[in-house]
Amino acid sequence: xxxxxxxxxxxxxxxxxxxxxxxxxxxxxxxxxxxxxxxxxxxxxxxxxxxxxxxxxxxxxxxxxxxxxxxxxxxxxxxxxxxxxxxxxxxxxxxxxxxxxxxxxxxxxxxxxxxxxxxxxxxxxxxxxxxxxxxxxxxxxxxxxxxxxxxxxxxxxxxxxxxxxxxxxxxxxxxxxxxxxxxxxxxxxxxxxxxxxxxxxxxxxxxxxxxxxxxxxxxxxxxxxxxxxxxxxxxxxxxxxxxxxxxxxxxxxx
Length: 254
Fold this sequence. Notes:
By secondary structure, the protein is of the alpha/beta class. 26% of the residues lie in helices and 30% in strands. A 9-stranded mixed sheet has the order 3-4-2-1-5-6-7-11-8, with helices on both faces. A two-stranded antiparallel ribbon has the order 9-10.
């Protein structure tokens, strides 16, 4: 029986432990190719490299490191590196959560979204842990089971899955909506040795856990369950499209 073809990528870099755990879990189940950034590109979202060449390094059979963004990796893999298109793209396993509004900034999610734009099913998976020596094995097993289902049953058109696995996960899974923002942006100010001001960007949670929407991804993870959130490529708010349509005449050139 011919194995399915799975492309792995991430935003933590091609040597990241989460990516390696995922590849190890999948190696006997699928033909795995790895195309990932040469170094960490967290926060790259779905950005592309447009003003410099995208250098490609062959690391091993079916494995490349790309001097570019996670979305670059998917594009180069699909158009140049892979002899056949993959049946599935998995982005991760990210070391850290991609919950709520962070899906807009996440290179992990951005790579999966880029795959779906190219009509390849995809999922992004993250481990909600800040431990230096995190255990990615349980999340990798969840990724495999989800991959098996996607390959067997498919996903709706233009939909990708964003999965967040809590640290010390006990096995429960909940399909959940994307949370509203429960953090605030923090800019820590400093001064470099030449006297120039700089700002270090971070975030701080502002809501208590009990204030989180019960059907959200944050609520699932706080309850110890893996959160699976289906994301759609089309962000159009249909209700506003209809409600605001009368503005067209008011804003048209006269």
